[in-house]
Amino acid sequence: MPTTLSAFADVTTSDSALRRFLHGLPGVDAVGLEARAAALGTRSIKTTAKAYAIDLAISMIDLTTLEGADTPGKVRALSAKAVNPDPTDRSTPMTAAVCVYPDMVATAKAALNGADVKVASVATAFPAGRAALPVKLADTRDAVAAGADEIDMVIDRGAFLAGRYLDTYELIKAVKEACVRPDGTAARLKVIFETGELSTYDNIRRASWIGMLAGADFIKTSTGKVGVNATPANTLLMLEAVRDFKAQTGIQIGVKPAGGIRTTKDALKFLVLVNETVGEDWLSNHWFRFGASSLLNDLLMQRQKLSTGRYSGPDYVTVD
């Protein structure tokens, strides 16, 4: 199938056209969505498949520190852990990325020293997104110039909820352009919706389509800074959106649930959602990520238990 957005060329020509398209999307059956997510969460994964799934989940983690108290030392330690999550077992996969604030990008890049781990940076006045457009674009350009491989931007939820859909689309387009380096290469763009603030599943579906139409490389549930973050239901809805988008355009978009995913059991439920909804094409860290900090430690403890038969406990993994 050719990869093209030509079928949607007229959708983004005006706010009214975009509104008609978004409100013409099928309504979300909330009960059915939550029931399917819950049913898939009961799937059992046996020992051999579980070992594979744990390694896959580790390789999909964006190991994250986004605190005001972040220091260069903490970022260097986190980067070392991303490259070598379990010093007692060098067969443990590296994580997909280290995710930091823009001012810590250069520190993370230097600490990784060419390792096959991406540096992701939040931008656009994360987490609230309450800043003028020039500030958001400068935030993005600074992170890209410092060496960020990926940018995690936040949409203006106020604009979206006020029905200013074209403004939301234009913001994502502008940030996408700011991700391009002078040599023509570009940082991949993850668009954060903050699903916990969007109120309805219909809004999450609409935001997903705005992000995809505007050129997002990933759509992401949350910042991890509000009460409701990634859930199986909102992630399932976003997976259905990228599946439908690829079916209509041939363009594949990644998905990143973030916030609140803390245990191996949680992570495996999300991998089942991916496999059953979009299939094996998305079962790699190029197309699916976990935004997490504490998840890695639980995955490491479960991995150690599978390999040794003993549960090692939290004293045998580093505290981030």
Determine the fraction of residues in helical runs and give it as a percent range. Answer: 40-55%
Strand order of the largest sheet: 7-6-5-4-3-2-1-8
* Alpha carbon gyration radius: 19 Å
Instruction: Tally the helices.
Output: 12
Strand content: 5-15%
Mean pLDDT: 94
Structure classification:
alpha/beta
E-strand count? 8
Distance between the termini: 44 Å
Low-confidence stretches: none
SSE order, as H and E? HHHEHEHEHEHHEHEHEHEH
Biggest beta-sheet profile = 8 strands, parallel
Which word captures the global form? globular
Architecture overview:
- The chain has 320 residues and is of the alpha/beta class.
- 45% of the residues lie in helices and 10% in strands.
- It has 12 helices and 8 strands.
- It has helices spanning 15-23, 30-40, 47-59, 72-83, 105-112, 133-145, 157-161, 165-178, 201-213, 232-249, 264-277, 295-308; strands at 61-64, 97-100, 118-123, 150-154, 188-192, 218-220, 254-256, 290-292.
- It is globular and about 60 Å long.
- The termini are far apart.
- The mean pLDDT is 94.
Question: Which properties best describe this structure?
Answer:
alpha/beta, 8 strands, single chain, eight-stranded parallel β-sheet, 320 residues
